[in-house]
Design goal:
The protein is an all-alpha fold. It has helices at 3-6, 8-30, 35-65, 74-90. It has one domain (3-90): Metal-sensitive repressor, helix protomer (Methane Monooxygenase Hydroxylase, Chain G, domain 1), CATH 1.20.58. The chain starts with a helix and ends with a helix.
Length: 92
């Protein structure tokens, strides 16, 4: 079973929130909201997409590479934990 299937409802909720944010940008542009407000909306979308990306990458590492909490190979577990931390830092 894929990690996206296991966490399907949580991931779909995040995607639906993104959809709502994108629709808010569309409404803002249609009603000629000031550009600063539109830029803030777009920045929040970028943050949400980055958060979703980080979650998917971390879950992928844990499911398909190595789960640091379960891997019996200490070196591989440590490497996976380091990679997850790097991904979290990079995508902040």
């Amino acid at each position: 079973m894929s990690h996206t299937t296991k966490h399907k409802e949580k991931l779909l909720a995040r995607v639906r929130r993104l959809k709502g944010q994108i629709e808010a940008v569309e409404r803002s542009l249609e009603t000629e909201v000031p550009c600063g407000d539109v830029l803030n909306l777009v920045a929040s979308i970028r943050g949400a997409v980055t958060g979703l990306t980080a979650e998917l990458i971390e879950d992928h590492i844990r499911e398909h590479v190595s789960n640091p909490e379960k891997d019996e190979d200490e070196g591989r577990a440590q490497g996976a934990a380091e990679l997850i931390e790097i991904v979290r830092t990079y995508l902040k």
